[in-house]
Amino acid sequence: MGFDLVGRVVLVTGANRGIGRSIVEEAIRRGASKVYAAVRKLDSAASLVEQFGDQVVPIHVDLEDPASITAAANQAREVDVVVNNAGVLTVSSVTDPVAFESLKYEFNVNVFGMLHVAQAFAPVLKANGGGAFVQLNSVASIKSFGDLATYSASKAASYSLTQALRESLAEQGTRVVSVLPGPIQTDMAGDAGFTEIAEPPVLVATAVFDAVEEGRFHVWPDSIAKQFGEAYQSFAEKIIEAEVQENPV
């Protein structure tokens, strides 16, 4: 069943730049009536307000601050689509002395922060007829990279939770989408040394709402991600997206 974005209300975390900003722009292009730009600093969304006027509403969300997420869910009661885009990355191998510190930081944001967003907004989406919850994961969710070991671990965990959310939120009619990009032109890709192969964020934004409208779970938006997706497809279809069996282990 299709999901028309026209007239819908969308909330995007990490909305002020990169992929998040592109998602905001794409939501409005597709007819969303309002987009909550969820950011840590409200003034960082000023240029979006200047561009789109009152269609964009800045709202304070810090994934390291659960109280801010709860407050946002209480404020944005009319939301139909939540896109949890915000995340962090550190360059750290498993033998790096800062690996424990990096892992704690990335899990706090990429895993616990994501779960707080999901739990806070699931009742909102249910009250509004189901809607959609979109999680920005990564190709690092299914393939660990040595210099990004702790980031890869956090994204593997967030992907696992996204699968569980798909099952849990299906009962309330909420479609869940897992987006697994490769290198995208963002500050994060620059920090990881992927600038030369990174692709435009608009690819992610377009793929996100195509998947929401079509009811697809896995999204592989860019050329590198598509290579991962092609290799992963059989497993995804037969195991991840298959109907859950009772007592599988």
TrEMBL record:
Tree of life domain: Bacteria
GO MF annotations, alphabetized: oxidoreductase activity
A Pfam family assignment: adh_short
Xref: InterPro entries: NAD(P)-bd_dom_sf (IPR036291), Sc_DH/Rdtase_CS (IPR020904), SDR_fam (IPR002347)
Gene3D superfamilies in alphabetical order: NAD(P)-binding Rossmann-like Domain
Keywords: Oxidoreductase
Protein family per UniProt: Belongs to the short-chain dehydrogenases/reductases (SDR) family.
Name of the molecule in the record: NAD(P)-dependent dehydrogenase (Short-subunit alcohol dehydrogenase family)
Natural source organism: Aporhodopirellula rubra
